[in-house]
Amino acid sequence: LHAQCSQRLQSPHMDLCHVPAAREKGWYLALMAPNVKGPNYAWLDPSRLYCHPQGLQDCVADLLQPFQGDPIDMVAGIDAMGFILGAATAAVLQKGFLAIRKAGHLCVQTVAQPYTDYSGREKVMEVRTDAISPGLRILLVDQWVETGGTMRAAIELVERLGGVWDHHPHALVLPVPTGVAAICIEDSEGGRWIRERYKCSHCVPPHLQPRFDHHQ
Questions:
Q1: What region holds the Phosphoribosyltransferase domain (predicted)?
Q2: Alpha helices in 68-127 (DSSP H)
Q3: Band of residue 210 on the pLDDT scale cut at 50, 70, 90
């Protein structure tokens, strides 16, 4: 995977036609581009993956695989990059999509939740109050879970409005289906908190997880 990534990054343009003969889980991770703009940006840019038709399809399929057979009523995606994977996932499932927004964009009644994002900045997210009814089963999708602050805030918003989750079987919480999906869930304190309490899916093979945890 590392060799594939290095070779493709030498080209100034993306190859949107190439598909490997053996499409193992996570092959599309090599399509992502590293940060070249410095510490004020995320260490990796997954948006390059979304430009590849087969890569995007396989990414969504891998995210949904653990939830096969689970009842899901709606997909919710987190502003902003979670909108891409969330909407694609909702389309595959033929379910509705709920946008969880950064504060100040919705012109309807909302409920808000403050949080600290991966860069340490204090922010507020909000969601409309008329979309989630008690007992609705929500699959929550974001591009990445690094420190876990953003996803945890989204979880709190959904639960405050009455959504339910497919919790980890060893957690003493309601065992009702749904969960959390992201390209990568890092082994951070926040990432572990989410994994321990909710059914999760991600796209990083186990042997590559340490590289992603250390941003290599």
A1: 70-162
A2: 82-93
A3: very high
Task: Indicate the SS3 state at residue 123.
Answer: strand
Q: Which residue do the tokens 């891409």 mark?
A: 84
pTM of the model: 0.87
Q: Which residue has the tokens 């808000």?
A: 112
Domain count, the chain: 1
Crossing angle of the two packed helices 53-64 and 82-93, in degrees rounded to 10 = 70
Q: State the pairing for strand pair 138-145/74-78.
A: parallel
DSSP state of 164: B
User: In this structure, is residue 18 part of a structural domain?
Assistant: no
pLDDT tens, position by position, 94-141: 999 999 999 999 999 999 999 999 888 899 999 999 998 888 899 999
Query: In CATH, what number is assigned to the domain containing residue 60?
Result: 3.40.50.2020
Domain span at residue 76 reads: 43-214
189 in a structural domain: yes
Give the closest residue to 204 by CA, choosing from 63, 77, 78, 89.
63
Single-letter code of the amino acid located at 22: A
Q: How many Å is the maximal CA-CA distance in the chain?
A: 51
* Contact of 76 with 98, CB cutoff 8 Å: yes
What is d(CA 143, CA 125) in angstroms, rounded to the nearest whole number? 16
